[in-house]
Every structure is written in structure tokens, then in C-alpha cells.
Amino acid sequence: xxxxxxxxxxxxxxxxxxxxxxxELVALPTETVYGLAANALDAKACRSIFRAKGRPANDPxxxxxxxxxxxxxxxxxxxxxxxxxxRFWPGPLTIVLPKKACVPGIVTSAGPxxxxxxxxxxxxxxxxxxAGVPLAAPxxxxxxxxxxxxxxHVIDGLGHKxxxxxxxGACAVGVESTIIDLTMPDRxxxxxxxAITGKALEKFLRRTVRRGRRSGNPDAALAAPGxxxxxxxxxxxxxxxxxxxxxxPSSAGIFLRKPAGPVGPNIYWxxxxxxxxxxxxxxxxxxxxxxxxxxRQIRVEALPAEPGGLAAxxxxxLKRAAAKR
Length: 325
Fold this sequence. Notes:
Elements (H helix, E strand, L loop, with lengths): L3 E3 L3 H12 L4 E3 L6 E5 L3 H11 L8 E3 L3 H4 L7 H10 L4 E6 L6 H4 L4 E5 L4 H10 L3 E2 L14 H8 L5 E3 L11 E4 L7 E4 L5 H8 L4 E2 L26 E4 L9 E5 L11 E3 L6 H17 L4 E5 L8 H13 L3
Parallel strand pairs: 1-8, 2-8, 4-6, 5-9, 10-11, 12-15, 13-14, 13-15
Antiparallel strand pairs: 2-3, 3-7, 4-7, 5-6, 9-10
């Protein structure tokens, strides 16, 4: 089996929608990263996601739907979740809520909650509409590796595991969605930071949004993906360094902005001028470039200690990418 990249023509979109309804896997673009999609109501199809990615069964999937009405068919919404969805959907926000019985246990790792979002990417929305089913779609890569933000990244990791990749170009956001747990609406919890910041959620909800998982059994199924200590990781050992660090010639250096003056072949940068949105868009692409180049180590310049903003999401991804094996 080898994957084919499909241009987003009406004919190809209809073909891919039929493939999803048959229980096949389709890698598709979202505004965050590329997802590996399957019919979320088809347990067998969702098991194929776990097999293709090499994903552990205790790491649940995010379900993508077309709008709030479709989301309410799968999850028990409370007023706070409904207000949040109306404000931030479509967009890079995932809400964790009690699941309804129609959601297969494989999707939620047998847990009582489901992580659900409405993507903003036009091609993801067209495919959702044509398929007529909710789509479970974790990142379209081998489990634990750097998330894909371009079709070539999907081929690199899953080219011999899946058949269909929808080409939507480079992803606009570049890091995974924000995840908020609203199963207890009076005590919301930010499980994963993202482009929709903790500050924005607190301002809208008018209450403190705590960070991290709720206390409980650490061996239990996770409430949402992206919560493992090591994730988003290159094969090359990665370290986070303060600005001004000394770079050995055998290591790759990734800087937040383009260095002044001439640079060597081991120098990479994420932005021309340090803009956080550009850094986010380029982070995974540049990490992959450095990882493929054969350096002994990758050293990444630390992000500013900005609380609650987009930098917090990028610090979270790099911290997990740098965690020891």
C-alpha cells in the first residue's frame, strides 16, 4: 500500500468522502495540523487509526464535526460549553464533555468523556459535509513524532500505512488545538494550550481556568490527546536553551528569529522578526528539517515566559519534544 496525494477537486472530495463512509482512513488538512481521519461512529475504522499510527489504546481521539448541532449529538453540553462553542467554533478549540452512548469506546479509550471540535479549514469542512459522519482525527503521523503540517510530512510518516492524503497546503496555525475540559463547568481546566489562549478562555468564561489534568489515577485513560510527558518529538535528541547559548558545530541550532550576519548550515530559524504566529506555523516544519539533516543534537532557543499566550502553547510542545525517552 502506498499513499496518493489528492488535489482538492470536487470529484476527489466526493471520492474521499465515500472512502470515509466505507471505513477507510483519509489524511486531511485542518487549520492546526494534518489529521488522520476515520468515521468516528465506526469502531473498526477507528481501530485502524491506532494501528496505522502505532498509537497506544489509552490515548483517545478528537472527534471533528461540522457544527454545534452535530456536536450535541455526540456529547452532553452544558450552558458554559455551549457558549464557548458559539464563540470559538469553527476554530482550533477542543472541548471535553461527557459522551453519549453512540460514541464507540475505542474513540474515548473507554473513558466517559469525548474530546470534540469544529474545524475551521474549508477542506476539512467540505469533507465533513460530504461524508455526512463525524470524523475522529488525531495527527497524521507515527505516534509521538513531530506533527505534520504539510502533505509531504504525512507521506514521510504514513506513506506505506494509508492510501489517501488530501492536499490542503501548509496549515495556517501549525500547532494542535487548545483543549479545555468542561465536564465540571464551574471548574474548567485547560488540558492543552494552543492558539486560543488560556487568557482568552478566562476572559470569556469570566472565571479561572486551571492548568493540567485533574487529580486521579495516573494509569487511567486520558481525557484527551497530547497529555503524555513525551510527545511531538524528533528522533534527534533535543534541548531547550536560553538565548545566547553556545552552539557546537555538530549540533543544529533553531532560533526564534533569523540571526544577523552570515549563518552556517546548522543554523535554522522560525521567523524573520520573531512574530509568535509565524514561529508557531514554522515550528514543526523546521524541527523536521533539522531532524532529517543528521545532526548529533538539536538545540532550540527558549520561548519568552509569556503566561497564557501562544508562547505557552509552543513552550508546552517543546517541553514534551525535549523530554527524555
